[in-house]
Amino acid sequence: MDVLVNQGHSVSTEPFDDQKPGTSGLRKKVARFQEKHYVENFIQSIFDTLPELAGGSLVIGGDGRYFNDQAIQTIIQVVVANGVEKLIIGKDGLLSTPAAAHLIRHTNSDAGIILSASHNPGGPEGDFGIKLNMKNGGPSPQSITDAIYENTKSVRTFKKIDCHSVDLASTGQTQVGPALVEVIDPVQDYADLMETQFDFDAIRQMPVRGIRMVFDAMSAVTGPYACEIFENRLGFPSGTVINAQPLKDFGGGHPDPNPVHAHELFDRMMSEGSPEFGAASDGDGDRNLIVGRSCPVSPSDSLALLAANAHLVPAFSKGLAGIARSMPTSSAVDRVAEKLGVPLHVTPTGWKFFGNLMDAGLVNLCGEESAGTGGAHVREKDGIWAVLFWLNILAVTSKSVQDIMTDHWQTFGRTFYQRHDFEGLDETRASEFFSALEKEAGNLVGRGVDGLTVVSTEVFEYKDPTTNEIANNQGVQLFLDGHSRLVFRLSGTGTTGATLRVYLERLETRPEAFSTDVADSLSGLTKLYQELLNLKHSLGVTEPTTVV
Ligand code: G1P
Ligand code: ZN
């Protein structure tokens, strides 16, 4: 059926002043995206910036949150009018971020548009987002997002065809004027890819041996992926995946897989008779949480452990080319890289900085403290991939999560780690505070409390070794004596006010102290930053709103 009504025309529009992509795409309240021409302007700016996308093919899908369907229909109208000849769209408009990244590569498409605000809440009052991914499957680099933003400031017309809604409820092909729209099963190709990465036969023995797992899809996009992979292909019993149905508002929850928001999973794993292995992913499926029986694993530790055990999984049969971590991620993985003699790269926050390193073959394992881990199989972090990586290691070592972590700490020491978020701050005040901190950080050298002293400071700047592009002002680091560090940065993903993130880490090498409570272990650092920053005076706050 041809759904085209009108071949395409130009529509006059007025620019919006807030279409600057942040750490991970353009993210705003749903209501902002619903404003007339808001989506159209942004999509047109992508094509004005990258006219070479005309004539090519595009992958489109999202995490299923509120407004996903309408946004996709609008995007179809604008991209077809701009000359895209083939659109590959996930059934029901669904594609997890890593599955979309894979599909771009697998189908040799030219780019992808992913609709998601990741772990931010959904629903009419919640958040929405648009991300542009490139031919390599990964997020568009800073130079492109900057150019798109420049364009949004002056866009005066967009192109659009008029057509009926394209049916996304069943797989198949539809002609929309000159463009072919193919609606595909969002899960199949991704699940097939996972089978090439890990030893599924070894993992299949886990349920046979009576090992139980629980995976919390948090009513977000990974439900169908997890059911297919963990239950259908690996044989974990039905019910292993909880909150498996993607909901437009994620059931009212906050789909961020951390101990605060994934508390259903967390409580279960901390209770008597819990399954042996627990995991969760976020709104769009790129984050992961790993938790053993009474043993939460911090994302930074998870990265270090995966690096140390990568030789056990097929994905790394050719070895580790290099490892990259974002600057605020703990240095636990640095010690593994050093022991293995593997190069380590430290990048600014955000997955977009890893893509070039992977394309150049410099790294094939990357991670962030914010529950992101991924390999070179796609150019995004990948929640289910990280969970399978863990399962593969547990299957071939026959160890528990607790044992494998304890063994790891015995070898490398334990890096205690926490992030304190101060959310909902006044934007002007926060940015003034932060600029002052950047300028005056150096004056903090020599300051300290309770024997913890600031030894050196740095405003993090990154030079991409593949492009020589510089990203400056990427956070403030305070290095303290005794292998401790404090990092401060402002979030680039929030939609309401500003968020100050404070990252704390401390290396502990005494085995008898490995079981200390994390907050207790970091109490000195907590006291130190509170005293140094004097947040009550500078920002009118005292306690973090979230601690993860
Ligand atoms: C946050 C995380 C960052 C991650 C990003 C997208 O960004 O801190 O590691 O890449 O979400 O998932 P932030 O809000 O800190 O800018
Ligand atoms: Zn995400």
Strand and helix layout:
Blueprint: E1 4-12, E2 26-29, H1 30-33, H2 38-49, E3 57-62, H3 68-81, E4 86-94, H4 97-106, E5 111-115, E6 127-133, H5 142-152, E7 157-163, E8 172-176, E9 179-184, H6 188-197, H7 200-208, E10 213-216, H8 222-233, E11 241-242, H9 263-270, E12 277-281, E13 288-292, E14 295-297, H10 299-309, E15 323-326, H11 332-340, E16 344-347, H12 352-359, E17 365-368, E18 372-375, H13 383-397, H14 401-412, E19 414-425, H15 427-440, E20 448-449, E21 452-459, E22 462-463, E23 470-471, E24 476-480, E25 484-490, E26 498-508, H16 518-521, H17 523-533, H18 535-539, E27 546-547
Parallel strand pairs: 3-4, 3-5, 4-9, 10-11, 10-12, 15-16, 15-17
Antiparallel strand pairs: 1-7, 2-6, 5-6, 8-9, 12-13, 13-14, 17-18, 19-26, 19-27, 20-21, 21-24, 22-23, 24-25, 25-26
Helix pairs in contact: 2-3, 2-5, 7-13, 10-11
Bound molecules: 1-O-phosphono-alpha-D-glucopyranose and zinc ion.
